[in-house]
UniProtKB/TrEMBL annotation:
InterPro entries according to UniProt: S8pro/Inhibitor_I9, S8pro/Inhibitor_I9_sf
UniProt cross-references to Gene3D superfamilies, sorted A to Z: Peptidase S8 propeptide/proteinase inhibitor I9 (3.30.70.80)
Organism, scientific name: Mikania micrantha (bitter vine)
Xref: Pfam families: Inhibitor_I9
Entry annotated with the keyword Signal: yes
Keyword Transferase attributed: no
Protein name, per record: Inhibitor I9 domain-containing protein
Keywords carried by this UniProt record: Signal
Length: 133
């Protein structure tokens, strides 16, 4: 008898949760439909890219990279917010968070050689996986 009561209680709780979820979902849909289309347009997501550039002959690298980024982002402040790292030794360039549209624009800038999305790569498998081969 106790298990039947517990089962009924579980079904009631599950039903209640389902009703609340449906109510919240329909309320969110109503709220979303009242937002003007110009406001509800999707925002492009910025991801980390590595931008390879020429080495400027008589300018500090970070200043050059900020100037290059500013030309696409609209201000030096926005460029400073997006710039993650300046590469100085093995390669000349910088990493920054850029949207697909910004990647397209910066690729056309003078002195920009290549723009690549940053990704993490694994050199080899762990020893546990290698023993199962």
């Amino acid at each position: 008898m106790a298990s039947r009561s517990l089962l009924s209680s579980s079904n009631f709780t599950l039903s209640l949760v389902l009703i609340i979820t449906i109510t919240i979902s329909s309320s969110m849909a109503e709220i979303g439909s009242s937002v003007p289309k110009s406001v509800s347009t999707p925002v492009e997501k910025a991801t980390v890219h590595i931008v390879y550039t020429d080495r400027p002959p008589q300018e500090e690298l970070e200043v050059y990279h900020l100037r290059t980024l500013s030309s696409v982002l609209g201000s030096e402040e926005a460029a400073k917010g997006a710039l993650l790292y300046t590469y100085k030794h093995a390669a000349c360039g910088f990493s920054a968070k850029l949207t697909p549209k910004q990647v397209e624009e910066i690729s056309k800038q003078p002195g920009v050689l290549q723009v690549m999305e940053s990704r993490t790569m694994q050199l080899h498998e762990s020893p546990a996986k290698l023993t199962n081969i």
